[in-house]
From TrEMBL:
Protein source organism: Gorilla gorilla gorilla
Location within or outside the cell: Lysosome membrane
Pathway noted in the entry: Steroid metabolism; cholesterol metabolism; Sphingolipid metabolism; Lipid metabolism
Record membrane topology: Peripheral membrane protein
Name recorded for this polypeptide: Glucosylceramidase
Gene3D superfamilies according to UniProt: Glycosidases
SUPFAM superfamilies found in the cross-reference section: (Trans)glycosidases (SSF51445), Glycosyl hydrolase domain (SSF51011)
The family this protein is said to belong to: Belongs to the glycosyl hydrolase 30 family.
Top-rank taxon: Eukaryota
Length: 435
C-alpha cells in the first residue's frame, strides 16, 4: 500500500486535543470532601493532570469548562438561584468552582508546556428563567428574544463563562450545550431547549450583541454544540441570517448519533455551504459500562477521530466526562468514560488503551497543523490521516482495525518512502522532517 502526500489542504487547520474539566474536578472533589484540601505533587489529582496536559503526558491543549453544574456534577446548582434577580446582583460562584474548578484550571495551565485554551458551555439557566421552572427535562427560556429573560441569560453567560475575576481568559463559549435535549420530555439532566430559529434569534438579538459589547469581545462564539445529525439544517437557519452569522465563529458538534448521520451529508456539506465557519468536534464519550483493558474501545475512538473528523474538516476533538472512580462517587453518570481508571482508596490511577490511542493525536498533532493529501494506492482496511506541522514536519497516523497485518509504503515526494507493516489491531504514528 502506498500513500502520497504532496500538497496541503487549505481548509484543514486543526487544534487537537480537548478534554473536559469534569474528570479532574471529580478527582479534586474527592480530595476536598475528605478534607485533603491541598495539592500533593505525588497525588492522583496532580498525576492525572500531568498525564493529560503536560509534556510528559499526552498534551491536551483545550479544557472544556461547564458553566455551573452539568450531568457529571456531584450536585445541581446555578450561579443565581435568587428569585427575580434579573440584574444578577446575587451572582456568585459556589465552592465547587472557587475551591475545585478554578484552582484545577490554574494548575493545568501551569503544568502545560503548550498553550491551553479554555472553552465554556452552559447547561441550564436558573430555573426562574425557564418555562417549566426546573433544571432538567423539557423546557426553554420564557418569553421571546430581546426580552428580560433572554437578556438576563445572555448577561449570565458573559458574566460567568468568560469572567476575568479569577484571572482566566477563555478562548470560546458555546451558545448552549445540546439545545435539542431541552426539547425532550423526560430528559434526565440539566438542559435548556432551543430550536434552530430560537438559537438564531437569541444569538442575533441577545448573546451576540452582549458578548460583542462586553470587555470579552475577543471570545469566540460557537453555535449548535449538539449532534451532527442536525446539520446542515441548523447551520442554514442560523448562518443565513446576517445578524446572527456575524457573531458566530464556529459550529460545535457531538458524536452520539453519528451512525445515523454520514459525515459527507453533514460535516462536508456544512463546510461546503459555510467554508469560513469552523467545525469543532466538541463532545465524545462512552455511554456504556467500563471495559477494563479494552483495546477495541481505543480503536473505535481512533477511528472516530480519523474518519470522519480529521478527514472531514472538523478542527478538534473533545473528550467529555470524568475518569472512572473506584469506589464510585455519586454524580449524574458514574461509570461511562474510561481512558483513566482511578482507585481513590489506593491513590492510584490506571491508563486504559483508550488513553494511549488518544495520545497518538494529542501528542503528535500540535495546534496549527494542516491536513495534507493522502491517497491509498489500493483498497485496504487501514484508517489513516496525514498532517503537516507548523514547522513543516509531517505526521501520518495509521490505524489497523482488522486482525491481519497489512504491508504499507508511505511515500513523501519531498524525502522518499518508508516500507513497513501495519500489524493487526494496531495504531502507529510516523513523524518526519521534510527538509
Amino acid at each position: 500500500m502506498e500513500f502520497s502526500s504532496p500538497s496541503r489542504e487549505p481548509s484543514g487547520r486543526v487544534s487537537i486535543m480537548a478534554g473536559s474539566l469534569t474528570g479532574l474536578l471529580l478527582l479534586q472533589a474527592v480530595s476536598w470532601a475528605s478534607e485533603q484540601k491541598h495539592w500533593s505533587s505525588d497525588g492522583a489529582e496532580y498525576r492525572t493532570i500531568q498525564a493529560n496536559c503536560t509534556g510528559t503526558g499526552i498534551g491536551y491543549n483545550i479544557i472544556w469548562v461547564p458553566m455551573a453544574s452539568c450531568d457529571f456534577s456531584i450536585c445541581t446548582y446555578t450561579y443565581v438561584d435568587t428569585p427575580d434577580d434579573f440584574q444578577l446582583h446575587n451572582f456568585s460562584l459556589p465552592e465547587e468552582d472557587t475551591k475545585l474548578e478554578i484552582p484545577l484550571i490554574h494548575r493545568a495551565l501551569q503544568l502545560a508546556q503548550r498553550p491551553v485554551s479554555l472553552l465554556a458551555s452552559p447547561w441550564s439557566s436558573p430555573t426562574r428563567l425557564k418555562t417549566r421552572g426546573v433544571g432538567n427535562g423539557k423546557g426553554s427560556l420564557k418569553g421571546q428574544p430581546r426580552d428580560i429573560y433572554h437578556q438576563t441569560w445572555a448577561r449570565y453567560i458573559v458574566k460567568e463563562g468568560i469572567s476575568k475575576d479569577h484571572k482566566l481568559q477563555f478562548w470560546a463559549v458555546t451558545a448552549e450545550n445540546e439545545p435539542s435535549a431541552g426539547l425532550l420530555s423526560g430528559y434526565p439532566f440539566q438542559c435548556l431547549g432551543f430550536t434552530p430559529e430560537h438559537q438564531r434569534d437569541f444569538i442575533a438579538r441577545d448573546l451576540g450583541p452582549t458578548l460583542a459589547n462586553s470587555t470579552h469581545h475577543n471570545v469566540r462564539l460557537l453555535m449548535l454544540d449538539d449532534q451532527r445529525l442536525l446539520l446542515p439544517h441548523w447551520a442554514k437557519v442560523v448562518l443565513t441570517d446576517p445578524e446572527a452569522a456575524k457573531y458566530v465563529h464556529g459550529i460545535a458538534v457531538h458524536w452520539y448519533v453519528d451512525f445515523l448521520a454520514p459525515a459527507k451529508a453533514t460535516l462536508r456539506e456544512t463546510h461546503h455551504l459555510f467554508p469560513n465557519t469552523v467545525l469543532f468536534a466538541s463532545e465524545a464519550f462512552w455511554e456504556q459500562s467500563v471495559r477494563l483493558g479494552s483495546w477495541d474501545r481505543g480503536m473505535q475512538y481512533s477511528h472516530s477521530i480519523i474518519t470522519p473528523p480529521l478527514s472531514h474538516v472538523t478542527l478538534t476533538y473533545t473528550l467529555w466526562g470524568p475518569p472512572v472512580l473506584k469506589p464510585p462517587v455519586p454524580c449524574g453518570r458514574l461509570d461511562r468514560l474510561e481512558p483513566i481508571i482511578v482507585d481513590i482508596t489506593k491513590h492510584m490511577f490506571y491508563k486504559q488503551p483508550m488513553f494511549y490511542h488518544l495520545g497518538h493525536f494529542s501528542k503528535f498533532i500540535p495546534e496549527g497543523s494542516e491536513r495534507v493529501g493522502l491517497v491509498a494506492s489500493q483498497k485496504n482496511d487501514l484508517d489513516a490521516v496525514a498532517l503537516m506541522h507548523p514547522d513543516g514536519s509531517t505526521v501520518v497516523v495509521v490505524l489497523n482495525r482488522s486482525s491481519k497485518d497489512v504491508p504499507l509504503t508511505i511515500k513523501d515526494p519531498a524525502v522518499g518512502f518508508l516500507e513497513t507493516i501495519s500489524p493487526g489491531y494496531s495504531i502507529h504514528t510516523y513523524l518526519w522532517r521534510r527538509q
